C-alpha cells in the first residue's frame, strides 16, 4: 500500500484530517492480508513532510474565544485533538507489525521526522534535510523525540534540540535516523523492486534490499551526497552531556561556538540565540526525565502530551509562530528573555499538566499506546 502526503505547496505539513486519515489507512491495512507493507512518501520534490501545520494551529488558538474550548485541556478542542491523534499515529508507526518504508526526500522536520523515525525502513536521499526546529516557535522536540534523541551519541540530542540544527543524509545514516541511502532519481526503480520483493520473509527481504542498494549505488550517485554536517563535531558536542541543567548546557554550547568558527556551528548558535529560553529548559528536562526514569516510548508520548498542551496554554508557541511565520518580523517577545530568568516552577508545570485536580487523566492513558 502506498500513502502519499499531498500538500506540496505547504511542504506536506500535517493537519488533523490528514493524521486521522493516515491512522485509519494503517489500521485497516494492519489486518488486510493483501497488504504486506506500507510505503510513505510526500508529493513534490521539496519535502517528505515539514511537520505539523503550525499556522493552522496558530489560527485556531487565536480563535479560542469563539471556538469550543474543552474543560480537559484549556485549549481549543481541535488543537488538543491534533496533538493526541498525531502522537497516536506516531506510536502506531513505531509499533506497526508490517514493514513501513518511508522515502525521506527533502525536508523531514518536526512532525515529519515523527513519521519518518518510527518506520522500519527509512530512506534518505541527497536532498534530505532533517531537523527538530521547535525552539524557534516556542514548542519542543515532540513526536517521540524524548525517546529517540536519547538514543544518539552523548550531547547530540541536547544540541539538536537547543539549536534546531539540520543534518543531512550522511549524518542521518550514521546516527540511525535513516537506515538506507538512495539517490532520489532511483525512486521509480526502488518502487519496482518493492513490488517484486518478498516482504513477508523479513530476513530475505532485507538481504534483497541490501543487494538492490548495492546494485544501484555507484561513484556517480555517491558523489551526489554532501559530506556529513554534524559528524565532524561529535566529540565537541559531547560536552553538553555533562551539563547539570539547561544554563550549563547553554554555556557549553556558547563555548563550543568560540572554539569552532564553522558555518554549521555558527548557524546553530544563531538559531539557539533566536529561540525560546523556555524551550531550551523543556528540551533539557524532557531528555533528562526520559533517561533518568527509563521511560518507554509510550511514556514519552504521554509526557510530551502534557508538555504540548502546556505550550498551547501559556502562549509561548503562539508568539513563536506569530513572529516567524505570520507577521514574519522575527522578533518574538518570549515570556522570559533569558534562560536564567525562567522559573523552575514554570518549567515543572509543563510536565504536570494532567495532575491538576480540575483536569482528567492524560487522554493517552486510555489509548492503545
UniProtKB/TrEMBL annotation:
One of its GO terms (biological process) is L-valine catabolic process. Its EC number is 3.1.2.4. Residues 2-351 form the Enoyl-CoA hydratase/isomerase domain. GO terms for cellular component: cytosol. NCBIfam families: PRK05617.1. The gene is ivdE. InterPro entries: ClpP/crotonase-like_dom_sf (IPR029045), ECH_dom (IPR045004), HIBYL-CoA-H (IPR032259). GO terms for molecular function: 3-hydroxyisobutyryl-CoA hydrolase activity. The keyword Hydrolase applies. It is an enzyme of class 3 (hydrolase). It catalyses: 3-hydroxy-2-methylpropanoyl-CoA + H2O = 3-hydroxy-2-methylpropanoate + CoA + H(+). Keywords: Hydrolase. This is 3-hydroxyisobutyryl-CoA hydrolase.
